[in-house]
Write a structure and sequence with these properties.
heterodimer, A: about 160 residues, alpha+beta, Jelly Rolls, four-stranded antiparallel sheet, 5 helices, 8 strands, about 30% strand, B: about 350 residues, mainly alpha, 12 helices
Chain lengths: ~160, ~350
């Protein structure tokens, strides 16, 4: 009874939700729970307020943003105006190209409401290649599949 | 009106900055303790983070780690200090006899040397070396007061560890949001270089200390715990630990047994330590860290000592790690942000997607 109470007080139940959330992200598909904990250890967490800018079009990308909660708008510059290109919600991720190369962002990302995001850096993936090669290989394999399907989708929409 | 606002905007932060500099200058010793505490908590943070992401709240993790580490430390202190006290007592008692033995060996050696090379007499080698030898016991004892830091630093670190990424959160909450990504990038780069280097080198130093401690104990060399501590501390400089340890232990072994056989045993022992370090410790412990060249380490220690004395030596290697990583980040930023030298595109990107 006392142990139960102590355990409940000492245990942070939010971690279980975070792990469950990460397991549903396609980038971390088929990664074991124990390894998800390692990934969580390497993520930065940040709360952005409504209208705050995550990055601007043309900024050099260095991190992948995983949206844990909230709603983020992706904007394309057209002259002086920013045109809403797409909206991303909890469970989606943006900026995956930054995990492979540090190139300018193709869109701007602005919070449409208060949002909580995880940031995964290229440096972390590079460190994982040495320290946990199996996890790094799995992430990179998933990333390659995601990039391939996004590229196919872009080509298809260009054809239309 | 506008001018008044501008003056206020400049004057108040300037006064605050001056006050901060003055406080730092007059209380610099306390600040060094604070910096050491931050460094200590930085070393422990990955362990706390390990349990934190597994659901255990920080306060409980830190408390349990401190409890367990406290008990282990007490046990270690009990064992080592008992041996070290005996060592120190006998060291102080035996020093005069060792000193006179050393004096006679050294004087006859210098006399022979001077008879062959008469010009050496002007350097007064005898006076210089023997003067240094007289002050050795008091020099060793002068380190004892700084042992107080062993209790103060963990005490302050406890509160820093409970707070977690407090400093980083304050910075990231007070810069424009679009720069958060680059700030975390710089932090992760420095952390990955500095953290792995420091953790690697401290683990290596600790293992070398344990190896020397038991090795010299079984070889039955006097003051084995002091020599092991010297080996551990000097292992922060690559290659230096085994060399200094071998040198000191050989002298002690010769003075203790008066025979060359024990000296050979000690030298063989330290050569094996060097091989264990090169073949097993370095590849496994340091494989994830950025290697600093031993020459850079020695030069940075010398520069650190010249700039800030003892603390300069303590912080030389971490500061060099930070400078090196910062320079490489600046070069990268120039390549990417300012387009000085764009990265070449991968080969054959003109082949269509199939």
């Amino acid at each position: 009874m006392i142990l139960d109470r102590f355990f409940n007080k000492a245990y942070d139940h939010a971690v279980l939700e975070k792990i469950k959330f990460l397991s549903q992200i396609s980038l971390f598909k088929n990664i074991r729970r124990k390894d998800l904990l390692y990934i969580l250890e390497n993520l930065y967490e940040k709360k952005y307020l409504k209208n705050e800018v995550l990055f601007n079009e043309g900024d050099i990308g260095r991190a992948l943003f995983i949206i844990y909660s909230g709603n983020i708008g992706l904007y394309k510059k057209n002259g002086d105006q920013n045109i809403l290109f797409s909206e991303v919600k909890a469970g989606d991720f943006i900026g995956e190209m930054a995990l492979l190369e540090e190139m300018p962002r193709s869109l701007s990302a602005i919070c449409l409401e208060d949002s909580f995001v995880f940031l995964l850096y290229k440096t972390n993936i590079e460190n994982m290649i040495n320290s946990k090669p199996k996890i790094a290989a799995r992430i990179n394999y998933n990333l390659a599949k995601i990039l391939s399907s996004r590229l196919r989708n872009t080509l298809r929409s260009n054809e239309k | 009106m506008k001018n008044n606002i501008r003056i206020r905007e400049i004057i108040f932060p300037a006064i605050l900055l001056l006050l901060a500099v003055a406080v730092f200058y007059y209380a610099r010793k306390t600040f060094f303790t604070l910096i050491l505490s931050v460094a200590f908590s930085y070393l422990l943070n990955p362990l706390v983070r390990f349990f934190e992401v597994r659901g255990i709240k920080r306060i409980y993790t830190v408390s349990v780690i401190y409890g367990v580490a406290g008990m282990l430390f007490a046990l270690l202190v009990f064992i080592v200090m008992n041996l070290a006290t005996i060592d120190l007592d006998s060291f102080i008692n035996n020093w005069p006899s060792y000193y006179s033995k050393f004096e006679s060996i050294f004087t006859s050696f210098v006399n022979k040397l001077v008879s062959v090379f008469p010009f050496l007499s002007q350097f007064k080698l005898n006076d210089k070396i023997l003067g240094f030898m007289v002050s050795v016991p008091s020099y060793v004892l002068s380190f004892i007061p700084s042992l107080m830091l062993v209790f103060i630093i963990p005490f302050i670190s406890f509160f820093i560890l409970i707070k977690g990424d407090g400093i980083l959160d304050i910075v990231s909450d007070n810069v424009p949001s679009r720069y958060v990504e680059v700030i975390y990038h710089i932090v992760s780069r420095i952390d990955s270089s500095l953290g792995s280097y420091l953790r690697g080198i401290l683990t290596e130093a600790f293992i070398l200390f344990i190896l020397s401690f038991f090795g010299l104990f079984f070889l039955n060399i006097d003051y084995f715990s002091i020599i092991a501590a010297i080996v551990g501390l000097s292992s922060i400089v690559p290659y230096l630990g085994a060399i200094i340890g071998g040198f000191v232990a050989s002298i002690i072994a010769y003075l203790q047994y008066n025979e060359i056989y024990s000296v050979i045993k000690v030298i063989i022992f330290f050569i094996s330590i060097r091989f264990i370090d090169d073949w097993f410790l370095q590849p496994y412990i340091m494989k994830r860290s950025v290697n600093l060249s031993p020459a850079v380490v020695v030069l940075s220690l010398m520069a650190g000592g010249e700039i800030a004395g003892f603390w300069g030596i303590v912080f030389a290697v971490p500061v060099v790690c930070i400078i090196r990583e910062t320079v490489s980040i600046i070069i990268e930023l120039q390549k990417t942000e300012f387009g000085w030298k764009p990265e070449p595109e991968p080969a054959k990107i003109n082949i269509p997607y199939t």
